[in-house]
Design a protein that fits this description.
The chain has one domain: Trna Endonuclease, Chain: A, domain 1. Helix content is about 40%, strand content about 15%. It contains 5 helices and 5 strands; from the N terminus they run ααβββαβαβα. It has helices spanning about 1-10, 25-35, 75-85, 105-120, 135-145, and strands spanning about 40, 50-55, 60-65, 95-100, 120-125.
Amino acid sequence: MSDLIEALRQNVRKLDPDGQAGFEGLMATVLSAVTGRTFVLASSGTQRGRDGQSVLDDGEIAFEAKRYDDAIPKDKLFTKVVELAADTASRVELFVVGATCAMSQRSRMGSKSVMAACFSILAMTAAFPPTRLRSSAPRRAARRTGPPS
């Protein structure tokens, strides 16, 4: 399984960062499948803190797609949080950040805390781990079938 996930990570990183055929488009497609809602990408230019959002519900779910090879700089996330919150016409209730790189615990928790405390917006992050996943299933199976202690 870990080899399949690593292959997925490498293929996703080959996508362009933006556009319908890029990582943003993939995020919109995945979020549509998971939520049952339709998502559209923001047009180029000022995006008000989001790469895309749900439609037919006044944009209650917004997302940011970060196709980075290295860690996302903390200021990039906080800038998005501030832009999203400054949009007074926005009705965002859930902000999803999807990344192809590792995100530090501090960045994830910091952006979630700020959004929840200051703006009443729930934040969710999804990112690949910083290193290749290791499969521990064979070791666990060996322990279960070994002689009792």
